[in-house]
Design brief:
Layout: H1 8-11, E1 20-23, H2 26-36, E2 44-48, E3 51-52, H3 54-61, E4 65-69, H4 80-86, E5 91-97, H5 109-116, E6 119-123, E7 131-132, E8 135-136, E9 143-147, E10 160-164, H6 167-180, H7 186-202, H8 208-220, H9 230-234, H10 251-281, E11 293-294, E12 299-303, H11 307-316, E13 329-330, H12 347-353, E14 356-360, H13 367-379, H14 389-392
Length: 393
């Protein structure tokens, strides 16, 4: 585990003011990249299964069609050979996702995209700070985006960045950023800053389920800015107030979040060591890390036989355990057909999403919390799977 390495080089690209653009959410950063790349009706964008619904939603908002490719059961990231097989003359962009902070295998996609003029976009929502070889994720294609939502490597409540490596694309991004994206209202900026402050000072793992319920209730009743509104989950029409920047009133908050990232990654990796040591003793399934890559341990994913039952038990015991991605397009109460996903399209993804849970490593989790989680899992040891179910089917 590389917990003592210097993370500054991996984070540095996301601090470059000439290549980054800050938005109200990470999904908006993705839409801005697609828009600047000239993607629209008649075009196709390849998207990995096992992702959040807001990713294909951003594609749909451009008028383009998302096509889904399956994941590799060994890595839980998109299988590049399956993406390659879907490329057609209508393919204008390919999105690769670094899930749970594990760098994805890009295979031949960078060369293919470069030779065919296809825009290669990295989804770094889980993985800002990770790297493959000496190259940080986010710098491997034409552009990338990350998120600062509650469950991401660092949080500002809501927010996202686009990182653009292609100079012509960066120039188009700058033009559209000035013309089409507005500042959020002062009330929204202040409320997000206050909500983030409350989270940072008062949230504790034992309150996870209560906090989640209260946040969702407040979002449904318009008391706070929700991560996704109900209409976003059910309709492929762009929501109102979507085209917003991060906001000048919170710019200091963004700088603080990025400066804290190296420290937080070290914290996450120290907890990951505790989890992995026990999981390896149990011979439990864990996704494979690519050779010569460094991950940031956003979450530690494992597979269990009865995911919903285990989560109910965790709630009753006040044990924080995550459930994403609980469907090919997370969350499972979204209208996946509306966003172009048809069941059976990604069989590995569909099987994985029925069995996966994830273990937290965020800054509020301490070693004593990890021990409580591991003790809970030990009491439910028979639920833990040792192999990916796809290999057993």
């Amino acid at each position: 585990m590389e917990s003592d390495m210097n993370w500054e080089a991996a984070v540095a690209p996301w601090r470059d003011p000439d290549r980054t653009f800050a938005y109200i959410k990470g999904r908006v950063a993705l839409y801005a990249i697609l828009q600047a790349a000239g993607i629209g009706p008649g075009d196709e964008v390849l998207v990995p299964g096992f992702t959040c619904v807001v990713v294909p939603a951003a594609v749909k908002y451009t008028g383009a069609t998302p096509l889904f490719y399956d994941i590799d059961p060994d890595t839980l990231n998109g299988d590049p050979s399956l993406a390659e097989a879907l490329i057609s003359p209508r393919t204008k962009a390919i999105i690769v996702q670094h899930t749970f902070g594990l760098p994805a295998d890009l295979g031949r996609l960078p060369d293919i995209c470069r030779n065919r003029g296809i825009c290669l976009i990295e989804d770094c929502a889980h993985a800002i700070g990770a790297s493959i070889g000496a190259r940080p994720v986010g710098t491997l294609g034409d552009a990338a985006f990350c998120s600062f939502q509650w469950s991401k490597p660092v949080t500002t409540g809501l927010g996202g960045l686009a990182l653009v490596m292609s100079q012509p694309l960066a120039e188009r991004m700058q033009d559209k950023y000035a013309k089409h994206y507005r500042e959020p209202s002062s009330i929204k900026s202040v409320s997000l800053a206050l909500l983030s402050t409350c989270y940072n000072h008062f949230f504790r793992p034992r309150y996870f389920w209560l906090a989640q319920d209260l946040y969702r209730w407040a979002g449904r009743n318009s008391l706070v800015q929700p991560s996704s509104s109900e209409s976003e989950l059910q309709s492929s029409s762009m929501p109102t107030h979507y085209l917003e920047r991060f906001g000048k009133l919170r710019s200091k908050q963004l700088r603080t979040a990025l400066s804290s990232l190296p420290h937080i990654i070290n914290h996450r990796l120290s907890l990951a060591e505790l989890y992995i040591a026990r999981l390896d003793k149990w011979h439990s399934y864990r996704p494979r890390l690519l050779p010569n890559s460094v991950f940031v341990a956003l979450r530690i994913p494992i597979l269990v036989h009865n995911r919903d039952k285990l989560l109910r038990q965790a709630r009753a015991a006040r044990i924080e355990i995550g459930d994403w991605f609980n469907a090919p397009l997370h969350p499972r109460n979204c209208n996946s057909l509306c966003f172009g996903y048809h069941m059976g399209r990604c069989p590995v993804t569909e099987l994985t999403s029925r069995h996966i849970i994830n273990l937290p490593t965020h800054s509020h989790v301490q070693s004593k919390d990890v021990e409580k989680i591991l003790s809970f899992l030990n009491d439910n040891h028979s639920q833990i799977m040792q192999k990916h179910p796809f290999s057993l089917s």
